[in-house]
Design goal:
- There is one protein chain.
- The protein is mainly α.
- The chain contains three helices and no strands.
- α1 crosses α3.
- The chain starts with 9 loop residues before the first helix and ends with a helix.
- The model has no long low-confidence stretch (mean pLDDT 91).
């Protein structure tokens, strides 16, 4: 993951969540991703909200 040099934003995170192993080949991660576009959109919205909410 560190060597991928991915700049994380909504677009790259959506791509990663849809197919993590395709986006970062050679990763040892066994996560298959979130194939449903609506579920990914909901997850991204949640992460944006969590990021904007102070602890």
């Amino acid at each position: 993951m560190k060597k991928s040099r991915i700049v994380w934003n909504d677009k790259t995170l959506d791509r990663f969540l849809s197919a993590p192993l395709a986006m970062v080949p050679g990763s040892s991660m066994t996560y298959d991703g979130v194939p449903d576009p609506r579920e990914r959109a909901d997850l991204l919205a949640y992460l944006r909200q969590a990021n904007d909410t102070p602890a």
